[in-house]
Amino acid sequence: MPYSVGYLGPKGTFTQKAVDALFPEQAAVSYQTIPACIDAVKQGHVRYSVVPLENTLEGTVNLTLDYLINEKSLKIVSELVVPVEQHFMVHPNHRERWTEMEKVYSHPHALAQCHHFLNNQMRDAVVETYASTGAAAKYVSENPDLEIAAIANDQAAKEYNLEIVKANIHDFVNNETRFIVLSKNGAELRMNGLVMEGFKTKVMISLPTDHAGALHQVLSAFAWRRINLSKIESRPMKTGLGRYYFLIDIDQKMDDILIPNTIAEIEAIGCHVELLGSYPHYSIKQKP
Ligand SMILES: O=C(O)C(=O)C[C@]1(C(=O)O)C=C[C@@H](O)C=C1
């Protein structure tokens, strides 16, 4: 049955690459911001939404995580890692004079992935953030008279008829972004055309105040059961200085005994535990 999928647009974003790989046959609906994508699935305008969660060079996309923490009605149902290659592009009129562009636009994460290039080759240009790489490329194509450039991917260059004047300007190779699929119905989502690499379960834990060694006890509840964790990070609760949520990725699927018993042990210390999703993960490999 056809359905629609929300993503951080417009056309030509890295999120669109993730959507094309995950949902090649469904209608993709573009939203201008990550919160708009999350609201669209929450309000039932789309069945799923795809948003970026983490990048190799820049780390967590805090906006996504902070929204997710507060959206109790949504769950992560799938995950896809996509290679990220950033290119410097201008309107074809400026092809010969690209080093003289006055402004460079892109998503903050994309700009942060290209520090060396910007510092060495575009030192005098003003760097300005845009809601997405695709939106930056679109703006550059719509303003051929301005001396401006965008950092975006090859699909954006094609979509908006821009010229890539410097390819692969990201600071380090193996640049990848992890995207998650959100839905109201928390059922795991397996993708047909992709090879599944494993399962994850993401939980969010808040510790009791004034409980010495609480985090140690949380981690040991996983450790003595030999449950592998692949990530632990903290985000502010935004209720007072020094108050943080801990987000933990468990390297296996939710089961009937092991993970529920671990959660019960953690809750017995006075922690609050919330399940953000138990889902398969996939990746698109880097080109050799
Ligand atoms: O702007 C885009 O193209 C996005 O899909 C967002 C995003 C991000 O938020 O990290 C995704 C991948 C790249 O790392 C740069 C930007």
UniProtKB/TrEMBL annotation:
The record places domain ACT at 203-280
Record carries keyword Chloroplast:
no
Q: What is its EC number?
A: 4.2.1.51
Q: In which pathway does it act?
A: Amino-acid biosynthesis; L-phenylalanine biosynthesis; phenylpyruvate from prephenate: step 1/1
Q: Which InterPro entries match?
A: ACT-like_dom_sf, ACT_dom, Chor_mutase/pphenate_deHydtase, Preph_deHydtase, Preph_deHydtase_CS
Keyword terms: Amino-acid biosynthesis, Aromatic amino acid biosynthesis, Lyase, Phenylalanine biosynthesis
Enzymatic reactions: prephenate + H(+) = 3-phenylpyruvate + CO2 + H2O
Domain named Prephenate dehydratase: residues: 4-184
Q: Which Gene3D superfamilies match?
A: 3.30.70.260, Periplasmic binding protein-like II
Query: Please, which domain of life does this record's source organism belong to?
Result: Bacteria
Q: Does the keyword DNA repair apply?
A: no
Q: Which PANTHER family match?
A: PREPHENATE DEHYDRATASE P PROTEIN, PREPHENATE DEHYDRATASE-RELATED
Any idea what this protein is called?
Prephenate dehydratase
Source species: Amphibacillus indicireducens
